[in-house]
Design a protein that fits this description.
The complex is a heterodimer.
Chain A: E1 39-42, H1 57-65, E2 70-71, H2 72-79, H3 83-95, E3 99-101, H4 113-124
Antiparallel strand pairs in A: 1-2, 1-3
Helix pairs in contact in A: 1-3, 2-3
Chain B: E1 15-23, H1 29-36, E2 38-47, E3 66-78, E4 82-88, H2 96-103, E5 108-113, H3 122-131, E6 135-140, H4 150-157, E7 165-168, H5 173-196
Parallel strand pairs in B: 1-4, 1-5, 5-6, 6-7
Antiparallel strand pairs in B: 2-3, 3-4
Classes of the chains: A mainly alpha, B alpha/beta.
Chain lengths: 126, 230
Protein backbone atom coordinates (compact mmCIF):
# COMPACT_ATOMS: atom_id res chain seq x y z
CA UNK A 1 0.00 0.00 0.00
CA UNK A 2 1.23 3.47 -0.77
CA UNK A 3 0.18 4.76 2.63
CA UNK A 4 3.30 5.81 4.47
CA UNK A 5 5.29 6.28 1.30
CA UNK A 6 7.19 9.51 1.68
CA UNK A 7 6.15 10.85 -1.73
CA UNK A 8 2.54 9.89 -1.67
CA UNK A 9 0.99 10.47 1.71
CA UNK A 10 -2.55 9.82 2.81
CA UNK A 11 -3.69 13.27 1.76
CA UNK A 12 -2.74 12.61 -1.84
CA UNK A 13 -5.51 10.02 -2.10
CA UNK A 14 -5.15 6.44 -3.15
CA UNK A 15 -2.76 5.56 -5.96
CA UNK A 16 -4.59 2.30 -6.59
CA UNK A 17 -8.26 2.76 -7.33
CA UNK A 18 -9.98 1.50 -4.19
CA UNK A 19 -12.02 -1.27 -5.70
CA UNK A 20 -9.01 -2.66 -7.56
CA UNK A 21 -8.19 -4.25 -4.19
CA UNK A 22 -11.38 -6.27 -4.37
CA UNK A 23 -11.03 -7.26 -8.01
CA UNK A 24 -13.71 -4.76 -8.92
CA UNK A 25 -16.28 -6.17 -6.52
CA UNK A 26 -18.29 -3.52 -4.75
CA UNK A 27 -20.58 -5.88 -2.85
CA UNK A 28 -19.64 -8.70 -0.50
CA UNK A 29 -19.80 -12.14 -2.11
CA UNK A 30 -22.37 -13.24 0.46
CA UNK A 31 -24.61 -10.30 -0.35
CA UNK A 32 -24.85 -9.45 3.35
CA UNK A 33 -23.60 -5.97 4.11
CA UNK A 34 -21.74 -5.75 7.40
CA UNK A 35 -22.74 -3.00 9.76
CA UNK A 36 -20.10 -0.49 10.88
CA UNK A 37 -20.16 -1.82 14.41
CA UNK A 38 -20.37 -5.53 13.64
CA UNK A 39 -17.78 -7.17 15.90
CA UNK A 40 -15.48 -9.60 14.11
CA UNK A 41 -12.61 -11.77 15.26
CA UNK A 42 -10.07 -14.01 13.52
CA UNK A 43 -10.88 -17.68 13.98
CA UNK A 44 -8.38 -20.40 14.76
CA UNK A 45 -8.32 -21.22 11.03
CA UNK A 46 -7.09 -17.76 10.28
CA UNK A 47 -3.45 -18.58 9.78
CA UNK A 48 -3.44 -22.14 8.61
CA UNK A 49 -0.78 -23.79 6.43
CA UNK A 50 -2.59 -22.63 3.28
CA UNK A 51 -2.16 -19.09 4.49
CA UNK A 52 -0.90 -17.79 1.20
CA UNK A 53 -3.74 -19.15 -0.92
CA UNK A 54 -5.98 -16.46 -2.19
CA UNK A 55 -5.10 -13.94 0.47
CA UNK A 56 -4.02 -10.48 -0.58
CA UNK A 57 -1.81 -8.35 1.64
CA UNK A 58 -4.95 -6.43 2.62
CA UNK A 59 -6.71 -9.65 3.66
CA UNK A 60 -3.73 -10.52 5.84
CA UNK A 61 -3.61 -7.08 7.34
CA UNK A 62 -7.26 -7.33 8.29
CA UNK A 63 -6.65 -10.77 9.83
CA UNK A 64 -3.87 -9.29 11.89
CA UNK A 65 -6.17 -6.58 13.18
CA UNK A 66 -8.82 -9.11 14.18
CA UNK A 67 -6.68 -11.18 16.55
CA UNK A 68 -8.84 -9.65 19.23
CA UNK A 69 -12.44 -8.56 18.69
CA UNK A 70 -12.68 -5.49 16.48
CA UNK A 71 -15.46 -3.72 14.64
CA UNK A 72 -15.67 -3.12 10.92
CA UNK A 73 -15.26 0.62 11.60
CA UNK A 74 -12.06 -0.05 13.59
CA UNK A 75 -10.61 -2.15 10.78
CA UNK A 76 -11.51 0.40 8.09
CA UNK A 77 -10.01 3.21 10.11
CA UNK A 78 -6.77 1.42 10.96
CA UNK A 79 -6.18 0.19 7.43
CA UNK A 80 -7.21 3.56 5.93
CA UNK A 81 -9.11 1.58 3.30
CA UNK A 82 -12.54 2.74 2.19
CA UNK A 83 -15.37 1.18 4.14
CA UNK A 84 -16.90 -0.51 1.08
CA UNK A 85 -13.59 -2.20 0.28
CA UNK A 86 -13.16 -3.42 3.85
CA UNK A 87 -16.65 -4.88 3.79
CA UNK A 88 -15.90 -6.92 0.69
CA UNK A 89 -12.56 -8.16 2.06
CA UNK A 90 -13.99 -9.02 5.49
CA UNK A 91 -16.84 -10.90 3.81
CA UNK A 92 -14.22 -12.92 1.87
CA UNK A 93 -12.55 -13.86 5.14
CA UNK A 94 -15.88 -14.77 6.73
CA UNK A 95 -16.69 -16.93 3.71
CA UNK A 96 -13.38 -18.74 4.13
CA UNK A 97 -14.00 -19.31 7.82
CA UNK A 98 -11.00 -17.24 8.78
CA UNK A 99 -13.07 -14.58 10.49
CA UNK A 100 -16.22 -15.02 12.55
CA UNK A 101 -18.85 -12.51 13.51
CA UNK A 102 -19.33 -12.08 17.24
CA UNK A 103 -22.88 -10.87 17.02
CA UNK A 104 -24.04 -9.49 20.31
CA UNK A 105 -27.29 -8.75 18.51
CA UNK A 106 -28.53 -8.98 14.93
CA UNK A 107 -27.54 -6.07 12.74
CA UNK A 108 -30.02 -3.26 12.89
CA UNK A 109 -31.72 -4.47 16.03
CA UNK A 110 -32.06 -1.94 18.81
CA UNK A 111 -29.98 -2.56 21.91
CA UNK A 112 -31.87 -4.26 24.74
CA UNK A 113 -32.97 -2.36 27.82
CA UNK A 114 -30.49 -4.32 29.92
CA UNK A 115 -27.69 -3.32 27.59
CA UNK A 116 -28.77 0.32 27.68
CA UNK A 117 -28.64 0.26 31.47
CA UNK A 118 -25.11 -1.11 31.24
CA UNK A 119 -24.17 1.73 28.91
CA UNK A 120 -25.73 4.25 31.28
CA UNK A 121 -23.76 2.88 34.21
CA UNK A 122 -20.62 2.86 32.07
CA UNK A 123 -21.09 6.51 31.16
CA UNK A 124 -21.76 7.54 34.74
CA UNK A 125 -18.58 5.79 35.84
CA UNK A 126 -16.42 7.67 33.34
CA UNK B 1 -9.06 -3.55 24.01
CA UNK B 2 -10.44 -6.90 24.96
CA UNK B 3 -8.11 -9.81 24.92
CA UNK B 4 -10.74 -12.44 24.34
CA UNK B 5 -9.46 -15.67 22.84
CA UNK B 6 -9.65 -15.75 19.09
CA UNK B 7 -12.48 -18.26 19.01
CA UNK B 8 -14.56 -15.90 21.13
CA UNK B 9 -15.92 -18.80 23.16
CA UNK B 10 -14.87 -17.45 26.52
CA UNK B 11 -14.96 -14.10 28.20
CA UNK B 12 -17.46 -11.34 27.70
CA UNK B 13 -18.00 -10.45 24.07
CA UNK B 14 -17.47 -6.91 22.95
CA UNK B 15 -20.74 -4.98 22.85
CA UNK B 16 -20.66 -2.04 20.46
CA UNK B 17 -23.20 0.78 20.25
CA UNK B 18 -23.69 3.59 17.77
CA UNK B 19 -24.62 7.16 18.60
CA UNK B 20 -25.07 9.76 15.86
CA UNK B 21 -23.97 13.34 16.33
CA UNK B 22 -25.80 15.61 13.92
CA UNK B 23 -26.05 19.34 13.42
CA UNK B 24 -25.13 22.03 10.98
CA UNK B 25 -21.68 22.79 9.65
CA UNK B 26 -19.58 24.34 12.41
CA UNK B 27 -22.00 23.43 15.19
CA UNK B 28 -19.19 21.63 17.01
CA UNK B 29 -19.81 17.97 16.13
CA UNK B 30 -16.14 17.10 15.80
CA UNK B 31 -15.32 19.07 18.95
CA UNK B 32 -17.96 17.18 20.90
CA UNK B 33 -16.78 13.78 19.69
CA UNK B 34 -13.15 14.69 20.38
CA UNK B 35 -13.89 15.95 23.89
CA UNK B 36 -14.83 12.51 25.16
CA UNK B 37 -13.39 9.90 22.83
CA UNK B 38 -10.46 8.86 20.73
CA UNK B 39 -11.17 10.25 17.26
CA UNK B 40 -10.35 8.12 14.26
CA UNK B 41 -10.72 8.77 10.52
CA UNK B 42 -13.01 6.77 8.27
CA UNK B 43 -13.08 6.85 4.48
CA UNK B 44 -15.83 5.70 2.26
CA UNK B 45 -15.92 5.52 -1.49
CA UNK B 46 -19.50 5.92 -2.54
CA UNK B 47 -21.39 6.02 -5.78
CA UNK B 48 -22.21 9.54 -6.91
CA UNK B 49 -25.89 10.14 -6.76
CA UNK B 50 -28.03 12.40 -8.85
CA UNK B 51 -28.12 14.72 -5.86
CA UNK B 52 -24.46 15.55 -6.20
CA UNK B 53 -24.81 16.62 -9.81
CA UNK B 54 -24.55 20.36 -9.66
CA UNK B 55 -22.94 20.18 -6.23
CA UNK B 56 -19.73 18.50 -7.28
CA UNK B 57 -17.91 20.02 -10.19
CA UNK B 58 -17.62 17.12 -12.57
CA UNK B 59 -16.01 19.05 -15.40
CA UNK B 60 -13.31 16.91 -16.91
CA UNK B 61 -14.16 13.90 -14.81
CA UNK B 62 -17.15 12.77 -16.81
CA UNK B 63 -16.48 9.13 -16.04
CA UNK B 64 -16.16 9.61 -12.31
CA UNK B 65 -18.84 7.56 -10.65
CA UNK B 66 -17.71 7.48 -7.05
CA UNK B 67 -16.89 10.13 -4.51
CA UNK B 68 -14.84 9.89 -1.37
CA UNK B 69 -16.58 10.79 1.86
CA UNK B 70 -14.14 11.36 4.70
CA UNK B 71 -15.56 11.40 8.18
CA UNK B 72 -14.42 10.91 11.73
CA UNK B 73 -15.78 8.78 14.47
CA UNK B 74 -15.10 8.59 18.17
CA UNK B 75 -14.48 5.43 20.09
CA UNK B 76 -15.33 5.45 23.77
CA UNK B 77 -14.49 2.35 25.78
CA UNK B 78 -16.33 1.78 29.04
CA UNK B 79 -15.19 -0.97 31.35
CA UNK B 80 -13.91 -4.09 29.69
CA UNK B 81 -16.44 -4.84 27.00
CA UNK B 82 -18.65 -1.83 26.21
CA UNK B 83 -17.70 0.43 23.34
CA UNK B 84 -19.68 3.46 22.27
CA UNK B 85 -19.07 4.71 18.74
CA UNK B 86 -19.87 8.35 18.08
CA UNK B 87 -20.43 9.12 14.43
CA UNK B 88 -20.61 12.69 13.24
CA UNK B 89 -23.04 12.80 10.35
CA UNK B 90 -21.75 14.30 7.13
CA UNK B 91 -23.41 17.66 6.71
CA UNK B 92 -24.37 17.98 3.08
CA UNK B 93 -27.69 16.71 1.87
CA UNK B 94 -26.03 14.59 -0.77
CA UNK B 95 -24.76 12.38 2.05
CA UNK B 96 -28.21 11.34 3.24
CA UNK B 97 -27.44 7.78 2.25
CA UNK B 98 -24.73 7.74 4.92
CA UNK B 99 -27.29 8.82 7.49
CA UNK B 100 -29.42 5.80 6.68
CA UNK B 101 -26.45 3.56 7.18
CA UNK B 102 -25.37 5.28 10.37
CA UNK B 103 -28.80 5.26 11.98
CA UNK B 104 -29.35 1.57 11.22
CA UNK B 105 -29.46 -0.08 14.64
CA UNK B 106 -28.21 3.07 16.36
CA UNK B 107 -28.84 3.66 20.04
CA UNK B 108 -29.88 7.25 19.45
CA UNK B 109 -28.73 10.65 18.25
CA UNK B 110 -27.58 13.99 19.56
CA UNK B 111 -28.57 17.04 17.52
CA UNK B 112 -26.05 19.76 18.26
CA UNK B 113 -27.59 23.20 17.91
CA UNK B 114 -25.83 26.51 17.41
CA UNK B 115 -28.24 29.27 18.44
CA UNK B 116 -26.71 31.61 15.88
CA UNK B 117 -27.80 29.28 13.09
CA UNK B 118 -30.60 27.28 14.57
CA UNK B 119 -32.13 26.55 11.18
CA UNK B 120 -29.12 24.40 10.35
CA UNK B 121 -30.38 21.66 12.63
CA UNK B 122 -33.92 21.49 11.21
CA UNK B 123 -33.01 18.78 8.69
CA UNK B 124 -31.50 16.62 11.46
CA UNK B 125 -34.56 16.99 13.69
CA UNK B 126 -36.85 16.18 10.74
CA UNK B 127 -34.76 13.17 9.83
CA UNK B 128 -34.70 11.58 13.30
CA UNK B 129 -38.39 12.28 13.83
CA UNK B 130 -39.21 10.56 10.56
CA UNK B 131 -36.97 7.61 11.33
CA UNK B 132 -38.27 7.47 14.89
CA UNK B 133 -34.75 7.28 16.21
CA UNK B 134 -34.64 8.68 19.77
CA UNK B 135 -32.68 11.92 19.92
CA UNK B 136 -31.96 14.85 22.17
CA UNK B 137 -31.01 18.42 21.33
CA UNK B 138 -27.79 19.74 22.85
CA UNK B 139 -27.36 23.48 22.59
CA UNK B 140 -23.70 24.28 22.23
CA UNK B 141 -22.84 27.36 24.25
CA UNK B 142 -20.34 29.17 22.11
CA UNK B 143 -18.34 32.02 23.56
CA UNK B 144 -19.85 35.26 22.39
CA UNK B 145 -23.08 33.71 21.16
CA UNK B 146 -26.25 34.89 22.86
CA UNK B 147 -27.49 32.45 25.45
CA UNK B 148 -31.03 31.24 25.22
CA UNK B 149 -33.19 29.32 27.56
CA UNK B 150 -33.50 25.73 26.31
CA UNK B 151 -37.24 26.27 26.32
CA UNK B 152 -36.93 29.00 23.71
CA UNK B 153 -34.89 26.66 21.56
CA UNK B 154 -37.46 23.93 22.08
CA UNK B 155 -40.21 26.25 20.86
CA UNK B 156 -38.18 27.42 17.88
CA UNK B 157 -37.50 23.82 16.93
CA UNK B 158 -41.08 22.74 17.62
CA UNK B 159 -39.77 19.77 19.55
CA UNK B 160 -41.92 17.05 21.00
CA UNK B 161 -42.21 17.93 24.71
CA UNK B 162 -40.63 14.62 25.64
CA UNK B 163 -37.45 15.32 23.70
CA UNK B 164 -34.84 16.73 26.10
CA UNK B 165 -33.14 19.98 25.15
CA UNK B 166 -30.03 20.69 27.21
CA UNK B 167 -27.24 23.23 27.26
CA UNK B 168 -23.71 21.94 26.76
CA UNK B 169 -20.16 22.97 26.11
CA UNK B 170 -18.89 20.65 23.40
CA UNK B 171 -15.30 21.34 24.42
CA UNK B 172 -15.66 19.87 27.87
CA UNK B 173 -15.63 16.20 28.61
CA UNK B 174 -17.94 16.35 31.62
CA UNK B 175 -20.49 18.35 29.68
CA UNK B 176 -20.42 15.90 26.78
CA UNK B 177 -20.63 13.01 29.20
CA UNK B 178 -23.80 14.56 30.65
CA UNK B 179 -25.23 14.92 27.14
CA UNK B 180 -24.67 11.23 26.47
CA UNK B 181 -26.17 10.26 29.83
CA UNK B 182 -29.24 12.39 29.01
CA UNK B 183 -29.54 10.62 25.66
CA UNK B 184 -29.39 7.11 27.12
CA UNK B 185 -31.84 8.09 29.86
CA UNK B 186 -34.16 9.46 27.20
CA UNK B 187 -33.93 6.25 25.16
CA UNK B 188 -34.74 4.20 28.26
CA UNK B 189 -37.60 6.54 29.22
CA UNK B 190 -39.16 6.35 25.77
CA UNK B 191 -39.06 2.55 25.94
CA UNK B 192 -40.82 2.54 29.28
CA UNK B 193 -43.47 4.80 27.84
CA UNK B 194 -43.87 2.82 24.67
CA UNK B 195 -43.97 -0.43 26.56
CA UNK B 196 -46.30 0.45 29.43
CA UNK B 197 -48.21 3.36 27.95
CA UNK B 198 -47.70 5.13 31.25
CA UNK B 199 -46.55 8.65 31.63
CA UNK B 200 -42.91 8.56 30.67
CA UNK B 201 -40.25 8.81 33.24
CA UNK B 202 -38.85 12.18 32.50
CA UNK B 203 -35.35 12.04 31.20
CA UNK B 204 -32.52 13.96 32.70
CA UNK B 205 -33.03 16.96 34.85
CA UNK B 206 -34.66 18.91 32.08
CA UNK B 207 -38.00 20.37 33.07
CA UNK B 208 -40.52 19.69 30.38
CA UNK B 209 -43.35 21.96 29.45
CA UNK B 210 -46.38 21.39 27.29
CA UNK B 211 -45.93 21.71 23.58
CA UNK B 212 -46.26 25.34 22.57
CA UNK B 213 -49.11 26.36 20.31
CA UNK B 214 -48.33 26.36 16.63
CA UNK B 215 -47.44 29.79 15.45
CA UNK B 216 -44.76 31.89 13.96
CA UNK B 217 -42.13 30.09 16.00
CA UNK B 218 -42.87 26.64 14.62
CA UNK B 219 -40.17 24.84 12.75
CA UNK B 220 -41.00 25.13 9.08
CA UNK B 221 -40.81 22.21 6.71
CA UNK B 222 -37.24 21.49 5.71
CA UNK B 223 -35.89 23.72 3.02
CA UNK B 224 -37.47 26.86 4.39
CA UNK B 225 -35.20 29.67 5.50
CA UNK B 226 -34.08 29.62 9.10
CA UNK B 227 -35.96 31.68 11.68
CA UNK B 228 -34.55 34.01 14.22
CA UNK B 229 -34.58 33.36 17.90
CA UNK B 230 -35.71 35.74 20.53
Amino acid sequence: MPVGDKWVDRNAGPVVRPYALTGGRTRPASGAVLDLITVIVASSLALGPDDSLGLSPEHRRILGLCRGPATVADVASTTALPLGVVRVLVADLIGQGRVTVLAARPAGEEPSTAMLKEVLNGLRAL
Amino acid sequence: MGSAPSDGSAGVPLAAFKVLVAGGFGAGKTTLVGAISEVRPLHTEEALTRASVGTDDLTGVGNKTTTTVAMDFGRLTMGTHLVLYLFGTPGQERFWFMWDELSFGALGAVVLADTRRLGDCFPSVDYFEKRQLPFIVAINCFDGAPHYDPEDVRIALDLDPRVPAVLCDARHRDSVKQVLITLVEHVLASRIKNGAGAAAARSGSQALRPKPPKGSHARPKSGAPQPELG
